[in-house]
Design brief:
single chain, 204 residues, mainly alpha, minor pseudopilin epsh fold, 3-stranded antiparallel sheet, 9 helices, 3 strands, 50% helix, 10% strand, globular, binds manganese (III) ion
């Protein structure tokens, strides 16, 4: 197997009470693993099987795209959350959030609006543009903004499978829990351009 299911960065029950162990278990060991297995199957024997995951995500379509992007997105999502309690964004990131949104609270409002406003399945993102500005956007289904030249800094999964066991139809409560109790600002900082090792650099 070329791609492997990465270990979760925290124990399966570490995000409780905001995300139940059962939710995380199904999400990680069924959904994420399922995308990975379908990707391996679809890639078997094709020249693309030798490419990096990022390259596959941004150069394929259909089944290969859907599963490759979902594999990438989920790894990025696990890392976008912390079990250690939220600590505020530091120096450079704090300054850039202030510049782009007016402040952290304004960022949260905009992110929640994007996450709750995404119709159907998808993802909400904090990204850095090519010009180095920060921006919030949402994508549908498996779409990943890195293929449009953005650098992802953080993401929240807004597919129903991410929150339905805990919050049923109340997506806004899940999004609030993500922003208030789970968001991993250290990960966003590590993803800022030039800030060193990130998921894209690490797996390229
Ligand atoms: Mn998911």
């Amino acid at each position: 197997m070329k791609f492997e299911l990465p270990e979760l960065p925290y124990p399966i029950d570490a995000l409780e009470p905001h995300i139940a162990a059962q939710t995380l278990d199904v999400h990680y060991s069924k959904h994420h693993r399922g995308y990975l297995e379908k990707l391996e199957k679809a890639l078997a024997g094709t020249p693309q099987a030798e490419d990096s995951l990022e390259h596959i995500v941004c150069s394929s379509d259909g089944k290969i795209f859907n599963n490759a992007a979902q594999v990438w997105n989920h790894t990025f999502y696990w890392n976008s959350m912390t079990a250690n309690g939220v600590t505020p964004p530091g120096g450079d990131l704090a300054a850039r959030l202030a510049q782009a949104f007016g402040g952290v609270d304004e960022f949260k409002r905009e992110f929640a609006e994007a996450a709750n406003g995404q119709f159907g399945s998808g993802w909400a993102w904090l990204v850095e543009t090519r010009e180095g500005n920060l921006k919030v956007l949402s994508t549908s289904n498996a779409d990943n903004p890195m293929c449009d030249g953005y650098r992802p800094l953080l993401t929240a999964d807004v597919w129903e499978h991410a929150y339905y066991l805990d919050y049923q139809n109340e997506r806004d409560q899940y999004v609030e829990a993500f922003l208030e109790h789970l968001i991993n600002w250290r990960f966003a900082e590590s993803n800022l351009r030039g800030a060193g090792k990130d998921q894209q650099a690490a797996s390229a």
